């Protein structure tokens, strides 16, 4: 039998819920009430979802911020799926473009919107692991690295520059040795 929600059983539940409904972050709420971020995050997702939906402002076109956020999450899931499928089919260029898209969307989610949860962290870790794999490939095979950097220059110039830097640094070390 699962344990009861710690946030639901606290004597401060009304204040905790009010703070979350007012737009406070999970981190700030958890710190204020001395609870873990995961407990407060689960509580918000499982027990406050409907009241939060009722409080959301509707834009002129009828959409809400939740609609926009859902579209962003679906885009992340879609690009992650493309990335996984293309890796399985050994389509490196497509996998790289999907990883770049995933990283960009995750940055929007985590940096611009300040959303930090376990699933987002997993997505970001996966995208960053793929990026590290690209760097390792560039170090081991400079020609393949340059081809990947060329693919990346439009979608992720920062990553393309990093790949070229790794190739140049590796070449300089080999020349010096």
Share of residues in helices: over 70%
Specify the overall morphology: elongated
Number of strands: 0
Q: What count of structural domains?
A: 2
Task: Return the average pLDDT rounded to an integer.
Answer: 76
- State the distance separating the first and last CA atoms: 63 Å
Give the number of helices.
Answer: 10
Helical/strand content category: mainly alpha
Largest sheet: none
Uncertain ranges: 50-56
Report the β-strand fraction as a percent range: under 5%
Taken in chain order, the helices and strands follow as HHHHHHHHHH
Rg measurement, Å: 21 Å
How would you explain this protein's 3D organization?
The chain has two domains: 50 residues; 112 residues. The protein has ten helices and no strands. The radius of gyration is 21 Å and the shape is elongated. α3 packs across α4, α8 packs parallel to α10 and α9 packs antiparallel against α10. It is 78% helix and 0% strand. With 177 residues, it is mainly alpha-helical. About 4% of the residues have low confidence.
């Amino acid at each position: 039998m699962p344990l009861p929600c710690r946030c639901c059983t606290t004597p401060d539940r009304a204040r905790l819920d009010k703070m979350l409904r007012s737009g406070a972050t999970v981190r700030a709420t958890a710190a204020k009430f001395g609870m873990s971020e995961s407990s407060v995050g689960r509580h918000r997702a499982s027990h406050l979802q409907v009241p939060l939906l009722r409080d959301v402002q509707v834009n002129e076109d009828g959409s809400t911020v939740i609609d926009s956020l859902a579209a962003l999450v679906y885009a992340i899931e879609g690009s992650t799926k493309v990335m996984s499928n293309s890796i399985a089919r050994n389509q490196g260029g497509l996998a790289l473009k999907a990883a770049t898209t995933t990283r960009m969307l995750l940055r929007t989610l985590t940096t611009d919107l300040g959303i930090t949860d376990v699933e987002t962290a997993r997505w970001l870790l996966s995208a960053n692991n793929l990026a590290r794999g690209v760097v390792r490939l560039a170090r081991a095979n400079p020609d393949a690295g340059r081809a990947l950097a060329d693919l990346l220059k439009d979608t992720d110039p920062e990553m393309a520059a990093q790949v070229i830097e790794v190739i140049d640094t590796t070449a300089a070390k080999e020349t010096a040795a």
